[in-house]
Amino acid sequence: MGKPLSGVRVIDLSRATAGPYGTLLLADLGAEVIHIEPPEGDISRYVAGGPQYKGESFLYMSWHRNKKSVVLDLWTKSGREALYDLVKTSDIVWHNFRPGAMERLGADYDTLKEINPKIIYVSITGYGSTGPSKDRPAFDVAILAHTGVLSLTGEPGGTPVRPGPPLADMGGSIFAAIGALSAIFDRERTGKGRFIDVCLQDACISFLSDYFSLYFLSGVTPEPFEHSGHRFSVPYGVYKTKKSYIALGPCWPRIARAIGADWLPDDPRFKEDSDRDKNRAELNRILEEHLAQAEAEDWLEIFKVEDIPADLVKTIDQVAIDPQVLHRKMVLSLSHPLGGTVKLAGNPIKMEGLIEEDYTGPPTLDQHGHEILSELLGYTEEKIKKLKQEEKENTQERLKHVRKMQV
Asked: What secondary structure does DSSP assign to 236-301, as a single string?
């Protein structure tokens, strides 16, 4: 059985994370993703700080396996013509530029649908393609602040804490991929393409659906809880043990027996849900007093017997060798085009026909440029040479516009 998106071609103009993560998912599912990069490359290739593999940034490698890299300067006539030729043979065009940027490039939806009426056009922006805030510059942490995500992180009364992963960037990419796949399905029935407008703001609002429902029904503004707690479940969250931390899911009253505090469920302060909610700080204090008597690993074994949802608070190096993680093939070892192998986080979508051993490593800049231009588009060597010469001559002019175009 082949890969589900075999035969689907995606023109990926996106940069950084809000965009490339979504096309990574499509590439893992079998789509041919052609990543169009400017002459200097995707900005994530040269991220300041962090390790590199033979000059390739760890950040770029994170989101670009199974893709092809082609350099096109869209500020040149030849570069735009090559893009238009690719659009004629493609299914999806995908970008994460600010509103108005693609119009200036002559690559907006209205222009491209004239070239290919079946094209599915995915636009990922910070605040949306319309509205009073559409032109604001956007970045993951700003969107997390704007949408209220940061108001729910950290400890009560403390400084808001940015989540480790770029949730706004990745969330926008995931919703964009869902939209693209839905449009592909619909096109089979209608024969028509679509414009898909996804923004990071809306992705985060969707992630907070239960918090907004809570606010609209109660009028109470949600706030963070200590111990990374949950509004409707006590105990719940992260607890200190003898030397490290353990995370507990819903576990009342079994947790009392597991830690040797059988008297807790009968204590009037904790008997009912409302009582535990009112006295959650005291209950958490008592739990941590007991949990401090042993190591997190020892408690985990006890909690397994009691069928309590719990796990260690692990570091990335521990997760990378976890037997279940390895069993699920969530650590990949891929051959790199510069030689050797690189390890990357795997594809979370498991289905028949997806073979991780067939994955290709993140491409070097313009690795597939000549192949795409000559074999897919049928360009002559003379035409390719002309295109590259225009790129070289236009470098300074193009760089004036680069910063204005990023999400």
From this structure: -EEEE-SSSEEEE-S-TTHHHHHTT-TTGGGSTTTSSHHHHHHTHHHHHHHHHHHHTTS-HHHHHH
As given in the structure block, the two tokens for residue 320 are 């990378």
User: Residue 124 in contact with residue 95, Cβ under 8 Å?
Assistant: yes
* Domain 9-207+361-405, architecture per CATH: 3-Layer(aba) Sandwich (3.40)
Q: Long-range contact list for 100-105, CB < 8 A, 24+ apart?
A: 100/135, 101/404, 101/405, 104/401, 105/74, 105/75, 105/80
- Residue 404's nearest CA partner among 200, 137, 141 is 137
Residue identified by tokens 């290739």 is: 45
Please tell me the distance from the alpha carbon of residue 257 to that of residue 31, in angstroms, as a whole number. Answer: 52
Alpha-helix runs per DSSP H in 334-394: 369-371, 381-393
Q: Catalytic one among 230, 290, 368, 401?
A: 230
Could you report the per-residue pLDDT of 77-131, keeping only the tens digit for each? 999 999 999 999 999 999 999 999 999 999 999 999 999 999 999 999 999 999 9
Place of tokens 């035969």: 7
Q: How far is CA 84 from CA 23, 89, 227, 336, 400, in A?
A: 20, 9, 54, 30, 23
Tokens of 214: 């809570």
230 assigned to active site: yes
SS3 label, residue 406: strand
Just give the CATH number of 226-240+245-312: 3.30.1540.10
Work out the angle between the directed axes of helices 200-207 and 209-218 (0-180°, nearest 10): 70
> Is 168:204 a contact under the CB 8 Å cutoff?
yes
Q: Map out the domains of the chain as residue ranges.
A: 9-207+361-405, 226-240+245-312
Q: What pLDDT is stored for residue 100 in this prediction?
A: 95
Indicate the SS3 state at residue 333.
strand
Distance CA 247, CA 312 (A): 6
Alpha-carbon torsion (166, 128, 135, 62), positive or negative: positive
Name the token pair of 233: 């479940």
Residue 215 in tokens:
């606010």
Q: What is the pLDDT of residue 353?
A: 86
Answer whether 0.90 is exceeded by the pTM.
yes
**CA angle at residue 349 from 320 to 44, to 5 degrees?**
65
CA distance 382 to 384: 5
